[in-house]
Structures are given as structure tokens and as C-alpha cells.
Amino acid sequence: MKKIYDKIFSLSLFKKFLTVPVLGKLLTYEVLSYLFFGVMTTVVNFAVFYVSDKIMGNGSLAEFSVFGHLFRITFEDISTFIAWVIAVLFAYITNKLWVFESKNTGLRVILKEIISFFGARIVSFAVFESFGFMLVRNIFINLGIFESEDANKWIAKILMSVLVVIFNYVMSKLVIFRKKNVTAEGDK
Q1: 3-state helix, strand and coil shares in percent for the chain, rounded to the nearest 5
Q2: Could you give the angle at which helices 149-171 and 107-124 cross, rounded to 10 degrees?
Q3: Global confidence as pTM
Q4: How many Å from the N-terminal Cα to the C-terminal Cα in the chain?
Q5: 184 within domain boundaries
Q6: Is 46 a member of any domain?
Q7: Residue 95 CB: number of other CB atoms within 10 A?
Q8: Domains: count for the chain
Q9: What is the pLDDT of residues 93-145, one digit of tens each?
Q10: What range defines the domain where residue 60 resides?
């Protein structure tokens, strides 16, 4: 991946993009590979959901009532969960190997990275994709910013998706895969 990036940005046309201050910061190998593998993670999520959904079919796994409202756990919910787990695992592997090029090895370190990675994804889902989406959508509705219910929903979804990408990138770069200072003796 890095070789492809280097070849593309060695061409004079693309070299000029790197001299523009804002573009130079956005067109780094790390940022572009993060976005590329983010798209690939989405493809993995959809593909696993599709296959899992076809295998399991339709129907409810369980039903329960909370405050008089009926809730169902469906096979689609199970397919969604399976797809999310596999997509996050795919994202972890691609982020570790190609985006942040983490050289950390050892079972303890890898387990810590995986737990941190999944934890960050759970937090971003809870904060942005659940609570944030609901909050922003309701603000749009209450302030009458958009006339259409669909516009409120999709604009909120897009805004929260951007925040999810930024949050996940920052967590991966600064916490999960941060480069550790190594002394001459090799101590961390």
C-alpha cells in the first residue's frame, strides 16, 4: 500500500497537491489508507450481513415487553451483530498492519490493542451513532431546521458519521496504535 501511495504522489501533478498546506495534511498515507480501509470495512460489514441474513432468514429469536412496549430480537439483529464484530476485527487488522503500521507484538500487547480498539468502537457507537444521532435529529426537528423528516434523519446521520470517523481515527492514532518512545537500550 505504501509503495502505491509513494508512486502516485511522486507524479508531478500529485506532488503539487502536497504543497498546499491543508491538502498536504489530509493527503498523507495514513489518512488516505484510513479512509480506504474504512470503506473496505463498510463493504465487509455489508457482505457479512448479507450472507448471515441469507443463512439465518427472517423471524424473531426472542420477544419481551418493557413498559408496555414490545421488543423483538430478530435474526437480522444477530446478523447485524455478527457483521459488526467481523467488520471491527477487519478494521483492527488493517489499521494495525497498514494504516498505523504498528510493530507491537506479543499476546498481551495485541489483546490490549484489540480490547482498546473494540472499546473505542463501542464508545463511538454509543456516543455518536446512538445518542448523538438522536440528539441532533431532535434538535433539527424542534428548531424546524429542515422541513422533511427524512432530511432531519439523513443530515443527522451524515454529521454523526463524520464525527465517528474523526473520533475513531484520533483514538487509533493517539491511544490504540500510538508510537511508543524507545530508548537506545530498547526500553519503553
Answers
A1: 75, 5, 20
A2: 160
A3: 0.82
A4: 28
A5: no
A6: yes
A7: 26
A8: 2
A9: 999 999 999 998 899 999 999 999 999 999 999 999 888 988 998 898 899 98
A10: 1-101
